[in-house]
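Record minuted for completeness.

…
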Amino acid sequence: MSDNKAILQRYYEQVFNGHELDAIGDYWADQEKREMVTRGCMTYLDAFPDLHISVEELIAEDDRVFVRSTMTGTHDGEYKGIAPTGHNVATDCAEVYRFTDGKIVGYWCLTNVAGLVRQLTEEQAPVAV
């Protein structure tokens, strides 16, 4: 595993799954980006306190690492103006990180937010027992 891939694996476990937001500064080179990422994480953790991200795929080339992941959680807080529903949700994410000297310096993310919102606003099918 490349160094950058190993760094991202630790980042996902510590920050996203361990909910250790204070560790964000250990991974990001730029203070402004650290603050942006912290705010984004807080938004999701406030809405989905049991947030978990499963890394499905990590691909590294040169200074970039692609991550394909699945985010899961229980909607126990407000998200995008939607009151808590208690729904268990899952959505796909694709992200590209750019590294310099072992720190993240660039980031691009595509999260299926529309699918996530649909899971929160549509009637849930009854679970067969």
Remarks:
- The chain has one domain: 3-121.
- The domain at 3-121 is CATH 3.10.450.50 (Nuclear Transport Factor 2; Chain: A,).
- The mean pLDDT is 93.
- The first helix runs from residue 3 to 17.
